[in-house]
Amino acid sequence: MKFTKMNGLGNDYVYVNCLKEKVEDPNKTAIFVSNRNFGIGSDGLILIKESDVADFKMDMYNADGSQGEMCGNGIRCVAKYVYDYGLTDKTTVSIETLAGIKYLDLYLKDGKVDTVKVNMGAPELRPAFIPVVSDKEQLINEPIEVNGTIYHMTCVSMGNPHAVVFMEDVKGLEIEKTGPYFEKHQVFQKRTNTEFVKVIDRNTLEMRVWERGSDETLACGTGACATAVAAVLNGLAEDEVTVKLLGGDLKIFWDRKENKVYMTGPATTVFDGEIDLEKFLVE
């Protein structure tokens, strides 16, 4: 299997061009290639495919083999891949995901994609569609007990579920202890991604993320979008913010007139490679 290792702010995935390659067991393949000791090392696996409804299709798998609906950092890298590797010459592309079709603007530097702006669509605030168990219309600054501690969360879906928690000490958070309890809390029917956020000022947010199926990652694009929306809903930030993640910064703008969230950030190719999966994927 030929592959390309790419990352968006350190949120790294193994990308496979399925217009040329065939991945028989993507769940098991994702688990193997993601392993940083015995595989390639990544936060998951992303397959680039043909689409009947868009320019391309993105299938995304987490490091534990579970399939995700959407990945903000991952989709920027898909856009870079299809342009840089000659699959398209368009600088505006549409990509089909399990969270719907996303539209991306590509910005070039020296003939290759440097940054990508993604129309992430409308944030979903209705609990049943996030999904999270609740009889309320929205969950904004909602108390939740997690492993004996009361937190306040704001729940948003950007095609995948997010619980955003604002706090003062993000750097000192023992996220590896708290994150799994949030992810698997009984109110989240499909588990959840959890963002722990400090408000630096009304235009700047600092965020760490525990990603469903991948543990802590250096960045999460959908999480940054959910965080920006949650900050606005809680009266903590303006509509346009910089979200500072461990891997770098993302620019997020919630156009409330159109009710669409736009994310702008870099996409980076690390290396190309080839791996023999047969001896690793036997039962």
Automatic annotation (TrEMBL):
Pfam families in the cross-refs: DAP_epimerase (PF01678)
GO biological process, one term: lysine biosynthetic process via diaminopimelate
Gene Ontology molecular function: diaminopimelate epimerase activity
Keywords annotated in UniProt: Amino-acid biosynthesis, Cytoplasm, Isomerase, Lysine biosynthesis
Major enzyme class: isomerase
Source superkingdom: Bacteria
InterPro entries (UniProt xref): DAP_epimerase_AS, DAP_epimerase_DapF
Primary localization class, coarse: cytoplasm
Binding residues annotated for substrate, in chain numbering: 11, 62, 72-73, 160, 193, 211-212, 221-222
Site (Could be important to modulate the pK values of the two catalytic cysteine residues): 162, 211
GO cellular component terms given for this protein: cytosol
Pathway note: Amino-acid biosynthesis; L-lysine biosynthesis via DAP pathway; DL-2,6-diaminopimelate from LL-2,6-diaminopimelate: step 1/1
Cellular location(s): Cytoplasm
List of catalytic residues: 71, 220
SUPFAM superfamilies: Diaminopimelate epimerase-like (SSF54506)
Catalytic activity annotation: (2S,6S)-2,6-diaminopimelate = meso-2,6-diaminopimelate
Quaternary context: Homodimer.
HAMAP family assigned: DAP_epimerase
Function: Catalyzes the stereoinversion of LL-2,6-diaminopimelate (L,L-DAP) to meso-diaminopimelate (meso-DAP), a precursor of L-lysine and an essential component of the bacterial peptidoglycan.
Protein name (record): Diaminopimelate epimerase
Species name: Anaerobium acetethylicum
